[in-house]
Amino acid sequence: MTTNQAVIAMERGTAGVQEGVEKGNEAGTQLTRIVDDAKTVTTMVQQIAEAIQQQSLATLQVSENIQTVAGVSQQNSTAVERVAESSHSLSQMVDQLQSAVGQFRL
Prior knowledge:
Blueprint: H1 3-102
């Protein structure tokens, strides 16, 4: 191997090393971007999880409120039935009173 060939081989080797360093730097940059994107995705997933938890709590509250409304509705229904029974009893008493008063007419 001549000196010229040795210099050319060294230049090629240096160019190859330089290309390897550039590719290594590019890979490092890409990995940094991947890590940053992974952190962003992790933050988004955490936000979604928090939102789901809040929605779950809100759903639970809605369910409790529906149960409360159902209970109040049942109480109202019972009260309406009692009023109807009282009204019927009062109507019977009015009839009896009219009949009793009718006996005292001249």
